[in-house]
Amino acid sequence: MEEKKIKVLLVNGSPRPNHNTGKALQAAMEGAIEAGAEAELINLYTIKNLKGCYSCFRCQRKGFSKVDPVCCIKDGTWPYLDKAREADVVIFGSPVYFSYPTGLLRAFIERFLFPKYSYDSKVKLVNPKNTASIFTMNCPREFMDHINYPILLGNTADGCKHVYGFGEALYICNTYQFDDYSQMQFDMFREEDKRAYRDAHFQEDLNRAKELGRRLVEEAKSRLNL
Fold first, then answer.
1. Per residue in 22-75, pLDDT tens?
2. Class of residue 97 by CB neighbours under 10 A (exposed 0-12, middle 13-18, buried 19+)
3. CA geometry: angle at 176 spanning 51 and 95, to 5°?
4. What are phi and psi of 56, to 5 degrees?
5. Segment 124-169, tens digit of pLDDT
């Protein structure tokens, strides 16, 4: 009998699929594959007509199963939500825009979480899922607490943990934001400092993302007794 493999879905909420967020998700995918998982990465900005929750409440009606749910609205987003439903591990990634993940990632997460959520306290959590969120940002790490990022961004991981039983966040700070700083108007930082920080720290950040992917797979294996 063929051994069951952990399925991992990585969801890129960045409009630049191969920039900082994409590289971090690629590293997480490498870690997951090295741990023996099957992994797939999707880019939300390639999905036509991606929409958030329709507030139809069909997933909250009596008789809707919370065991292995997926959104009832079969639009262009639905096939990717179905992939998330089938995955044992889901890793989200997004740059931070004005203190939050991108709008498309928020839309996807609404559709991912609400069918599993219940207003009935007697409904127990079944079929948990290991989840994590990777956030990349221009903000330096020492400034995060000052602008409440651990709370604002942590809400995404906390929501996943509340609904699916597992959720955590990995922060990649002070990123090299532009491909060509000479074309940009700024005086809040120096390109030389950004480049030096990237050269000194970004590979460490990618290593942390890779370790995250590996660890989540190992935790899922343990959870599923594989």
1. 999 999 999 999 999 999 999 999 998 899 999 999 999 999 999 999 999 999
2. middle
3. 20
4. -80, -20
5. 888 999 999 999 999 999 999 999 999 999 999 999 999 999 999 9
Distance (Å, whole) CA 24 – CA 137 = 12
Q: Whole-prediction pTM value?
A: 0.95
Closest CA to 8 of 81, 90, 108, 70: 90
Residue 80 token pair: 């990717």
**Which of these, 50, 160, 177, lies nearest to 105 by C-alpha position?**
50
Q: Which residues make Cβ contacts (< 8 Å) with residue 148, sequence separation at least 6? A: 99
Length of the chain in terms of residues written: 226
Count how many Cα atoms sit within 13 Å of the Cα of residue 186 in the half-sphere of its side chain: 14
Would you list the DSSP string of the chain? -PPP--EEEEEE--SSTTSHHHHHHHHHHHHHHHTT-EEEEEEGGGSTT--------GGGSTT---SS---S--STTHHHHHHHHH-SEEEEEEE-BTTB--HHHHHHHHHHHTTT--S-TTPPP-S-BEEEEEEE-SS-GGGTTTTTHHHHTHHHHHHHHHHHB---EEEE-S----S-GGGS---SS-HHHHHHHHHHHHHHHHHHHHHHHHHHHHHHHHHTT-
The strands making up 89-95's β-sheet, listed across from edge to edge, are 38-43, 7-12, 89-95, 130-136, 169-172
